[in-house]
Amino acid sequence: MRDEKDAPLRSDAVANRERILEVALAELTRSADVPLSTIAKKACVGQGTLYRNFPSREALVLEIYRHEMRQLADTAATLLRTRPPDQALREWMGHLARFAMAKAGLADALHKATSAPGGPAKPGHGPVTEAVELLLAANEEVGTIRPGVTSDDFLLAICGLWQIDPRDNGQARARRLLDLVMDGLRAGAPGR
């Protein structure tokens, strides 16, 4: 007999879950202390539905983080299928900047969810690292970036994204930073 937890979700249940995540991201970005009842109401679901999907505030916050990170990572392969590798990399970097700025607002909620004694650990950034490796490999293969750039090199080069205040002309500052990083990656590329 199949366990209920293993059963695929109905389409309305999937839609409810997605709507909860979308509303929760927006609300928790504004305030880490927003009541879960407010999230349920704005997502047009009952509190029972919210708690059935996310049994605690911590579970909801961590799932938002994982969900956003997975979407960001999945974008890399999609972009590589539809654009030249260097354009895919630069466009993906823009997605990464938006993720970093959204996460800046969610940072307080994430910190509260993972800092309690015995609480869950902050999820790693493995999917994003894999996306970076995929993009770098595709670019190195066609010679659009300098050879030998590692995912660690790249992540260190763009870590300034997490320092940008999204309210203080953040998007423009992020574009300038990412253009500088992209120029640095292209310098010494064999295909240039």
What does the model show?
- This protein is mainly α and 192 residues long.
- It is built from eight helices and no strands.
- It has helices at 11-30, 36-42, 47-53, 57-82, 85-115, 126-142, 151-158, 170-186.
- The longest helix has 31 residues, at 85-115.
- The radius of gyration is 19 Å and the shape is elongated.
- It starts with 10 loop residues before the first helix and ends in a 6-residue tail after the last helix.
Please give the share of residues in helix. 55-70%
What coarse outline follows from CA principal-axis ratios?
elongated
Class by alpha and beta content: mainly alpha
Strand content: under 5%
Number of DSSP strands? 0
Structure described in brief:
The chain has helices spanning 11-30, 36-42, 47-53, 57-82, 85-115, 126-142, 151-158, 170-186. The protein has 192 residues and is mainly alpha-helical. The mean pLDDT is 87.
Q: What are the SSEs and their pairings?
A:
Elements: H1 11-30, H2 36-42, H3 47-53, H4 57-82, H5 85-115, H6 126-142, H7 151-158, H8 170-186
Helix pairs in contact: 1-2, 1-4, 1-5, 4-5, 4-6, 5-6, 5-8, 6-7
Key descriptive features of the protein:
mainly alpha; 8 helices; elongated
